[in-house]
Amino acid sequence: MISASPTPLDFASSPINQSLTPQRKIELYTQMVRIRRFEQAALKFYNAGKMAGFLHLYIGQESVAVGTISLGGADDHFITAYRDHGHALAVGMGMNECMAEMFGKQTGCSKGKGGSMHFFAPDKNFWGGHGIVAGQTPLGLGLAYGLKYLGREGCCLCYLGDGAVNQGAFHESLNIAALFGIPVVYVIENNGYSMGTSQKRSSAYNGCLAQRAEAYGIEWDVVNGSDVYEVRAKAHIAMERARKEHKPTVLEIDTYRYYGHSVADANHKKYRTPEEIENYKNNHDPIMVFERKLLEEGVLNDDLVKSINDAAKTEAAASAKFAEESPAPTIADISTDVYWESDNNTPASQIGQHFFND
Amino acid sequence: MSRILTYREALREGLDEELARDPNVVLMGEEVAQYNGAYKVTEGLWNKWGDKRIVDTPISEAGFIGMGIGASMLGVRPVMELMFWSFHSVAFDQLVSNAACVRYMSGGLCNCPIVVRGPANGGTGVGATHSHIPEGMFAAFPGLKVCVPATPADAKGLIKAAIRDNDPVYFMENTLLYGTTGEVPDVADGDHVVPLGVADVKREGSDISLIAHGRSVIHSLAAAEILQSEHGINAEVLDLRSIRPLDVDAILKTVRKTNRVVLVDESKPFGGVSAMVAMLIQEQAFDYLDAPIKRVCSIDAPAIYSPHIEHEQLPNPRRIVEKVLGMR
Ligand SMILES: Cc1ncc(C[n+]2csc(CCOP(=O)(O)OP(=O)(O)O)c2C)c(N)n1
Predict the structure, then answer these.
(1) Is A92 left (phi over 0), alpha (psi -120 to 50) or beta?
(2) What does the pLDDT look like over A61-118, one tens digit per residue?
(3) Most buried of A195, B180, B244, B301, CB within 10 angstroms?
(4) What is the DSSP letter of B102?
(5) What is the Å distance from ligand 1's center to B135 Cα?
(6) β-sheet bridge partners, residue B210
(7) Can you give the residue ranges of every domain in chain A?
(8) Angle at which helices A22-47 and A286-297 pack, to 10 degrees?
(9) Ligand 1 center to residue B43 CA distance, Å?
(10) Span of the secretion signal (chain A) (predicted)?
């Protein structure tokens, strides 16, 4: 039956979290800290004019990427929108290649061609970084379809925002996912706002966004994103459903972004009150909440917290140095990575003309 | 008399005047009302005109563009903002199957007086999905009108003409022009309307014609100054302003005058505006040409992100000058 999952109480003691070793818990904490420190560094260098375009910060939402991706096995895949730095680091991409991408350098993960919104690491089962709101949702469906077709027992986690749920592409994806039995988990990262528009002003039914899944006979659940244990416990159920039963799930994770929609969004204290932002920072911050739990559990101590934070800061600063010192792409690079044949100079590349520059 | 306004202010003034002139004009789109517009074109209009006339929509391009088209069939005059024209892809079916065809399919019974506007350009470091330059593509659909203003005065005059037009008009602005300034005729001097389909000679010249639209006009004017001062070449700059209807007479006139042409077009070289204009010239003014037609387009690849070379993928004054010098 379709329903919000029963209220289990203490998510730390759910089986999937019970199995976490202290070492693994520290790793999860470290990953969240690394994402935050990386982005704080990115913001600094963006403001110093080292990057172009947009910078959509994930700060405040770290538990979502880290919690869900920590459940991934060899055949689980991930795809997201333009707010992609957190997912990228959580799948194991290096700070250097990510920072260099934002600096527009050849050493970036997409050779400086994609930028902040278009990080990719297929070797780590990470399929990007996509710029069109909800455009990634049919792709996530397709990755999951591909897994099933190829006979692999994995699933695809496809992330989207609360604004993206209003796009037709998402609804079409849900229908096909249910109809075909596709192992996809849609993770709605509900940070309350699509740019300057609150969820209340963009979505007609405000019971909850995940509940729309009912229209397609799809299971759904709502998750408190300040608690990485809860994220893992509930995402695990959805992922197992996908892997074992080839059934989709829609998870809605309540979270918050502390900065504007992008760094260019100077209005973000007009459509949200400073009190609202402070409340999240002081009472719901996922890193703070997890840190407290781990201190209570005796897994972390103050020294360890400090050294983890310091190491992440140092690593982020080093990645900016690496990015700064890396070479920029050349004009000739503009025309590579457009067609496979021309890059590989195959016989097919000799037939007909690909490019029309004179 | 005239005043100096930014391109953004000129557009806003045109929108404001049409909102005042016709109670059926309504502005709609993502963040156009309470947020004052992602690029602040609609700043202040929600405060002035309120919820009925200035409407925030969810991120549902197919839904709200289609809604505007339907409303226009009933006599509402919606001006729909696409936050970026790059997001046209989500609403493509509505834009080309419904707006473009409904008048024809109904034998003229239905009109579709909608304006769809927003920035369409590269050069802002936002990567491939956000840098589409689609004017040539939409001009290829009969039934649609397409204009691309390069100056504040044209932005104001053309948006007013577009809103009054009884056909769908796709209005393509440029984020990199929003802050640029220029003279705009004084409001007291009367209604400043620039008719669709009339090109404008932005610089008189005798040696070569640079034919451009949008930001390429600005680059062409800069290139013309370099050509004049450093090489003694006197270039004429023709600003197409509208892509459809297209001012073929003005194109032929400048070609007959200078006998040499470089087309400057920010979109890609395959198909599109420059390919079409070049073909028209060869069909209708071949005998006047003293040299083959040349083009400066964006390098034929999706838009690169890297700020270090993005401007080299696009037309720029240096590339235009080099192209002209290469023709001698
Ligand atoms: C089709 C499309 N329309 C509009 C945009 C511009 N835009 C980018 S992000 C965004 C807000 C999306 O909000 P949400 O889905 O809630 O995700 P969040 O930014 O909160 O992570 C908008 C309007 C876009 N990129 N694509």
Answers:
(1) left
(2) 999 999 999 999 999 999 999 999 999 999 999 999 999 999 999 999 999 999 999 9
(3) B244
(4) H
(5) 23
(6) B237, B262
(7) 11-327
(8) 150
(9) 20
(10) none
Angle, CA A154 vertex, CA A149 and CA A159 arms, to 5°: 105
> Hey, what are B270's tokens?
């395959």
Question: What's the pTM?
Answer: 0.95
| Distance, CA of A77 to chain centre | 12
Confidence of residue A5 (pLDDT cuts 50, 70, 90): low
Q: CB A159: neighbour CB atoms within 10 A?
A: 29
Which tokens sit at B323? Answer: 């192209």
- B61 chain-A contacts, CB cut-off 8 A: 167
Q: Which residues of B are catalytic?
A: 61, 130
Residue type, B195: P
Alpha-carbon distance A277 to A285, whole Å?
Answer: 10
Peptide bond into B78 cis (omega under 30): no
- Per-residue pLDDT at A207: 85
Q: Is B83 in the pocket of ligand 1 (CB under 6 A)?
A: yes
For residues A148 and A176, give the distance between their C-alpha atoms in angstroms, rounded to a whole number: 14
Q: Is A272 on the interface with B (CB under 8 A)?
A: no
Q: Are B34 and B56 in contact (CB under 8 A)?
A: yes
Nearest Cα of chain A lies from the Cα of B89 at a distance, in angstroms, of 9
Q: Which atom of ligand 1 is nearest to the CA of A83?
A: 21
Instruction: Go through chain A and tell me how many residues it has.
Output: 358
Does residue B309 sit at the A interface (CB-CB below 8 Å)?
A: yes
Q: Ligand 1: does its nearest atom lie under 6 Å from the Cβ of A164?
A: yes
Q: pLDDT digits over B211-262, tens only?
A: 999 999 999 999 999 999 999 999 999 999 999 999 999 999 999 999 999 9
Answer yes or no: do A357 and B128 touch at CB < 8 A: no
Residue for token digits 């920029």?
A328
C-alpha distances out from residue A125 to A60, A67, A77, A122, Å = 24, 16, 5, 5
Report ipTM for this prediction. Answer: 0.94
- Please say if the pLDDT value at position A3 is more than 50: no
Which residue in this structure is represented by tokens 């910078």?
A55
